[in-house]
Amino acid sequence: MNILQINSSARSTGSESTRIADAIVAKLTATNAGATVTRRDLATDPHPVLDEATLQALFTPADQRTAAQASRVALDDALIAQVQAADVIVIGAPMYNFGITVQLKAWFDAIARAGVTFKYTATGPVGLLENKKVYVALARGGMHRNGPTDTQEPHLKVFLKFLGLTDVQFVYAEGMGLGPDAVAKAQADADEQINAILV
């Protein structure tokens, strides 16, 4: 089993989404002998955002790219290769201002490439990252699950399905900004969820 862990908190330490993601990975490695883990912390090793220069590089034929363009595309290629090689993807996804972090958005922009991770067909787009399990660790300061302020989970479901990632399990830690008792409860709830889905 090849496990890819993506930590997308802006915090390199003290992140609840990272704690949950670590716990999921620990449980997976404990029950799958020989599992390998590749970790990418987008706080300490951020990926560049999608800008005009990057778009120009991506839409320039490979044999016509400048050295700078080729170097930029290679950064995205490396992330795509990690995703393609993974059997399991674990994403730590805190909620910032009702959505995903800019760090995670930059990673998503890098791995979504037509003809590589999805393709357009006469009947619509088809995801090419199939037969992979995804776990998403959601940490929120307030209480948003199943409510109108939870734009994060629907966005993640749509994007992951777009790439062919349909086997997705969410783990929630909510109320992290509501005081010590709420934090303790949120962490205990998250741990219970992990134990329930990873027997």
TrEMBL record:
GO terms for molecular function: electron transfer activity; FMN binding; oxidoreductase activity, acting on NAD(P)H as acceptor; oxidoreductase activity, acting on NAD(P)H, quinone or similar compound as acceptor. Gene3D superfamilies: 3.40.50.360. It catalyses: 2 a quinone + NADH + H(+) = 2 a 1,4-benzosemiquinone + NAD(+); N,N-dimethyl-1,4-phenylenediamine + anthranilate + 2 NAD(+) = 2-(4-dimethylaminophenyl)diazenylbenzoate + 2 NADH + 2 H(+). Keywords: Flavoprotein, FMN, NAD, Oxidoreductase. Its EC number is 1.6.5.-, 1.7.1.17. FMN binds at residues 9, 15-17, 95-98. Binds 1 FMN per subunit. InterPro entries: Flavodoxin_fold, Flavoprotein-like_sf, FMN-dep_NADH:Q_OxRdtase_AzoR1, NADH:quinone_OxRdtase_FMN_depd. Its cofactor is FMN. SUPFAM superfamilies: Flavoproteins. Residues 1-196 form the Flavodoxin-like fold domain. Pfam families: Flavodoxin_2 (PF02525). Homodimer. PANTHER family: FMN-DEPENDENT NADH-AZOREDUCTASE 1, FMN-DEPENDENT NADH:QUINONE OXIDOREDUCTASE. Also exhibits azoreductase activity. Catalyzes the reductive cleavage of the azo bond in aromatic azo compounds to the corresponding amines. Belongs to the azoreductase type 1 family. This is FMN dependent NADH:quinone oxidoreductase. The lineage of its organism: Bacteria, Pseudomonadati, Pseudomonadota, Betaproteobacteria, Burkholderiales.
